[in-house]
Amino acid sequence: AQKITQTQPGMFVQEKEAVTLDCTYDTSDPSYGLFWYKQPSSGEMIFLIYQGSYDQQNATEGRYSLNFQKARKSANLVISASQLGDSAMYFCAMTLGSNYQLIWGAGTKLIIKP
Amino acid sequence: SAVISQKPSRDICQRGTSLTIQCQVDSQVTMMFWYRQQPGQSLTLIATANQGSEATYESGFVIDKFPISRPNLTFSTLTVSNMSPEDSSIYLCSVDTSANTEAFFGQGTRLTVV
Question: Is B11 in the A-facing interface, judged by CB distances under 8 Å?
Answer without folding.
Answer: no
